[in-house]
Design goal:
Length: about 220
């Protein structure tokens, strides 16, 4: 069966609704093969060519001064599209990220990405944990994913965290373990020694040593 390639991605933006003139300011993505992170990533900051609202900057920490002079969206989109290929796209609250991504693609005069390609971990979490705290922070806490590096939102870091959460949500950890086991068996030669079947009963000397061993088990020192 062909390997399952998926891309976990995240965006940071200047606001909530692209129709209000808000733009992507950071784009991050992580590659997974059979639910195992490969180490291949995509990351870029993006100059939104507009001021950064204070409430948005408070979320991700990206200021107008920092973003001015970063690549514009049109200059990084070909690399991003090449990275994701035709793989399914995994995102937390995927509607938000897909809407912004497609809005930017439309602005650039490029075809949009069908929403059918998106896998929404928020929807998965709500089905699996109804009534639970299903934010990314909440799911990381639930699944003991280390959050110490996350002082603010960041597209690449959040993608890396979400990849670990996605594995837990889908029971995919076993897939990774199976692959590791297979690799270990292929890389390591294990020599197995077969012992001949004993052809006779224990000798009197062996029986005497066994009786002494069993008697020793009754010594209080063995019980400490």
């Amino acid at each position: 069966m062909a390997p399952l390639r998926e891309i976990v991605f995240d965006t940071e933006t200047t606001g909530i609704f692209p129709g209000d003139g808000h733009r992507i300011v950071e784009l991050g993505a992580v590659e997974m093969i059979d639910r195992v992170v490969t180490g291949r990533t995509f990351h870029s900051y993006v100059d939104p060519c507009r001021p950064m609202p204070k409430d948005a900057q408070a979320v991700h920490g990206l200021s107008s001064d920092f973003l001015t002079g970063q690549p514009i969206f049109e200059s990084i989109i070909d690399e991003f599209l090449a990275f994701i290929g035709d793989a399914p796209l995994v995102a937390h609250n995927a509607v938000f990220d897909m809407e912004f991504l497609n809005w930017e693609l439309k602005r650039a005069g490029m075809p949009v990405i069908p929403h059918s390609r998106a896998i929404d971990t928020l929807e998965i979490a709500r089905r699996k944990h109804p009534g639970g705290k299903n934010t990314l922070d909440g799911l990381c806490s639930r699944y003991n994913v280390d959050l110490s590096a996350r002082t603010k939102h960041g597209a690449l870091l959040d993608s890396e965290l979400l990849a670990r959460v996605y594995v837990e949500l889908t029971g995919g950890r076993q897939i990774g373990f199976d692959l590791a086991s297979e690799a270990s068996e292929e890389d390591t030669v294990i020599e197995r020694v077969s012992l001949a079947v004993r052809a006779h009963s224990a000798s009197p000397e062996e029986l005497e040593r066994h009786a002494a061993f069993v008697a020793g088990l009754k010594d209080p020192l063995w019980l400490q």
